[in-house]
Amino acid sequence: MTTEQLYNQIQEKKSFLCVGLDVDLNKIPKHLLALEDPIFEFNKAIIDATHDLCVAYKPNIAFFEAYGMKGWLALQKTINYINDNYPNIFTIADAKRGDIGNTSSMYAKAFFEDLNFDSVTVAPYMGKDSVEPFLAFENKHTIMLALTSNEGAFDFQTLLVDGKELYKQVLETSKSWKNSENLMYVVGATKAEYFTEVRKIVPDSFLLVPGVGAQGGSLAEVCKYGMNDKVGLLINSSRGIIYASTGTDYAEKAREEALKMQQEMSGIVSLKFKV
Ligand SMILES: O=C(O)c1cc(=O)[nH]c(=O)n1[C@@H]1O[C@H](COP(=O)(O)O)[C@@H](O)[C@H]1O
């Protein structure tokens, strides 16, 4: 998918919501556990209930890998279900990969070719040759961690290197990499005050913004400081949407939560573009 197609979808749906699929068998409604593939059945119901309100889905790979072969099969069924039924929706494999070049190439193949995701999250710690193999794929996107939503972000990401915070160095340096137009960046919603600085370095890039909902970040604040001319944001909520209810009405309640976010986004988009 191209960023233009993603932007068109944002305009059409008046939404820049990404629903995170972080499926934990201890948290999903108990009646699903009797089914052959509870993870997929849970995802399918959430996707069917929210697809018109969001522009992206982000399965977090850890939540599938934790269940071994069954989990990986559920991941494959989930991505195929989205691609077959809602092909306009942007898909993010939240895998936070990155390794020496030839290994990164295999990670990229796994998520872009075998599973056919539109994007994958990547950690920048190993530098240029660990990220460029992901960037080589046309119309696929590499979402690199810049400033994360967790407390530990302050351990390294904001340390000064040559008088500049490390996350700023990461953003700046990555712009010189081959095919850097295929980069997007993760910036946590819990750090809204940093978005102004981020936008000075990457004014046009899409930012994946986790941390609203369960982690307490504010959608309005992120939009105030982080939005660009083309919105340029994908705001993720996982637990706040998918675990809105633990009863048989879980999909309905997930829709209600997604709708609340979409309505807030619709107001912001309409105001910004005066539509
Ligand atoms: O890359 C991510 O998606 C990510 C980066 C980050 O800085 N913080 C963060 O929470 N995430 C992911 O975003 C999701 C947030 O989930 P909730 O807090 O339940 O909305 C989880 O899948 C996290 O792994």
Automatic annotation (TrEMBL):
A Gene Ontology molecular function term of the record: orotidine-5'-phosphate decarboxylase activity
A GO biological-process term: 'de novo' pyrimidine nucleobase biosynthetic process
Active site (catalytic residues): 96
Domain Orotidine 5'-phosphate decarboxylase: 16-254
Family the entry assigns: Belongs to the OMP decarboxylase family. Type 2 subfamily.
SUPFAM superfamilies reported for this sequence: Ribulose-phoshate binding barrel (SSF51366)
Enzyme Commission identifier(s): 4.1.1.23
Lineage: Bacteria, Pseudomonadati, Bacteroidota, Flavobacteriia, Flavobacteriales
Annotated protein name in UniProt: Orotidine 5'-phosphate decarboxylase
Highest taxon above the source species: Bacteria
Catalytic activity: orotidine 5'-phosphate + H(+) = UMP + CO2
NCBIfam families noted in UniProt: pyrF_sub2 (TIGR02127)
Alphabetized CDD domains for the sequence: OMP_decarboxylase_like
InterPro entries given in the database record: Aldolase_TIM, OMPdecase_type-2, OMPdeCOase_dom, RibuloseP-bd_barrel
